[in-house]
Design a protein that fits this description.
With about 400 residues, the protein is mainly α. The chain has helices at about 1-20, 25-40, 40-70, 80-90, 95-105, 125-130, 135-140, 150-160, 190-205, 215-235, 235-245, 250-265, 285, 295-300, 305-325, 330-335, 335-340, 345-360, 375-385, 390-400. The chain is elongated.
Length: about 400
């Protein structure tokens, strides 16, 4: 397998020479060859090439990402500088991100025992990957001016960064060795980097990218992707603690929960609803033969989830994450939902109203049919934490 790694290194060297000489035409073909070679045996090849692959991919992406960031709306096809338009035609940012994502997946396996009996713990290849990745590149590629595919690819790449001790890029020399030395926003600490990544990802809960038109399926899809990424962060004790400590994550989760419930109840009744509880992609249906042509014509967009399904899914996943942060023994005291929401304009009111609407949802009604029993139960637990018994009786009188 070392032969494959050496071959990719040779490709990366040619790629780097193209960048140095500003000859960008061959880069697409070099990246395709590197991607194909990496696919042959990802786990064996990826750990040997990340130190050279990540910098060259990041440099290539920046050639397009920086002009896009400095543009008004991110559209480089009509950029006044012909050199920028030429770069857009020669460089495929999505291809570079796919290569990085595949390499990151290949680095998720635990270190292989090579017979070394030294007592020093081995650094995982996942840690090595994210120690090579730079924070400014991650934040740059999460700009709302990037196209949909590239933005989603960067979120998917971040999923591979979750470790027991970090999320996002790892500083080469971490300074947060003691509990009292941590400073929020310090890019030289794992906690500071985690706070910046969480701030960036959670911002899309309230302000989706430019290509997600408000009220559309893409708008809901962006918010679901952001919630899912934050949920992935919470799968590690470190990530869950950083989410609980964040001053913005919980208020934004409550905001998107309130937004989704409002959109669910504001839907046009004449829109073709799907009240039955079913996954976005039914495996049984996928195994059956294709429907008749006449049926396919009548259901041309049946493969695309309808807004009701997406809103209910967003409500369920947001409620589950809020419940986890508020009730888990490791994060409950740090989360302090009441304090964080009190500091957010209208946060406490949105939180209480949203939970009450979920708690008293009725499954036999049209709009509430997609809200599952588990979500209602989680909302009930959260509202009990948010109000006193007397306030709870008042809520029952209002919604009962």
């Amino acid at each position: 397998m070392r032969l494959l790694a050496d071959f990719v290194e040779l490709i990366i060297d040619l790629w780097q020479r193209c960048l140095s000489e500003r000859y960008h035409t061959p880069i697409y073909y070099l990246a395709s060859l590197a991607l194909y070679t990496l696919l042959l045996n990802t786990e064996s090849v990826a750990p040997h090439i990340i130190s050279s692959l990540i910098p060259v991919c990041a440099t290539t992406c920046r050639l397009v990402a920086l002009p896009r960031l400095n543009s008004v709306d991110g559209n480089l096809a009509e950029h006044p500088d012909p050199a920028v338009r030429q770069l857009l035609s020669e460089i495929d940012v999505g291809q570079c991100l796919s290569l990085l994502h595949l390499a990151a997946l290949g680095c998720l396996s635990p270190p292989v025992d090579d017979g070394d009996n030294t007592q020093q713990p081995k650094t995982s290849t996942q840690t090595q990957f994210w120690r090579t990745m730079e924070l400014d590149f991650v934040l740059l590629m999460l700009s709302p001016k990037h196209p949909e595919t590239e933005w989603l690819q960067m979120l998917n790449l971040l999923w591979t960064s979750v470790t027991p001790d970090s999320l996002g890029p790892i500083p080469s020399f971490a300074t947060d060795q003691s509990a009292g030395s941590e400073r929020p926003g310090d890019i030289h600490t794992t906690t500071g980097i985690a706070a910046m990544v969480i701030d960036c990802v959670s911002s899309f809960l309230c302000e989706p990218p430019l290509w997600a038109t408000p009220g559309t399926i893409k708008d809901a899809g962006v918010r679901i992707a952001a919630v899912q990424t934050l949920t992935m962060f919470a799968t590690s004790p470190f990530g869950a603690m950083q989410l609980a400590m964040s001053d913005v994550a919980i208020p934004r989760l409550v905001t998107v929960l309130s937004w989704a419930i409002d959109r669910l109840y504001d839907m046009d009744v004449e829109f073709p609803l799907r009240p039955e509880k079913r996954p976005l992609f039914d495996e049984d249906e996928m195994q059956h033969d294709c429907p008749k042509q006449s049926e396919a014509d009548d259901n041309e967009e049946s493969h695309e989830p309808d807004p009701m399904t997406l809103f209910c899914r967003l409500i369920a996943e947001t409620t589950k994450l809020l419940h986890y942060l508020a009730t888990d023994s490791r994060t409950a005291n740090v989360a302090n939902l009441a304090g964080k929401l009190a500091a957010s304009y209208g946060g406490s009111q949105r939180h209480l109203i949203s939970l009450a609407r979920l708690n008293f949802a009725e499954e036999d009604l049209i709009f509430e049919a997609g809200i599952d029993a588990e979500t209602i139960e989680l909302a009930h637990d959260l509202i009990e934490l948010a109000v006193t018994p007397d306030e709870g009786r008042e809520v029952v009188e209002v919604f009962g």
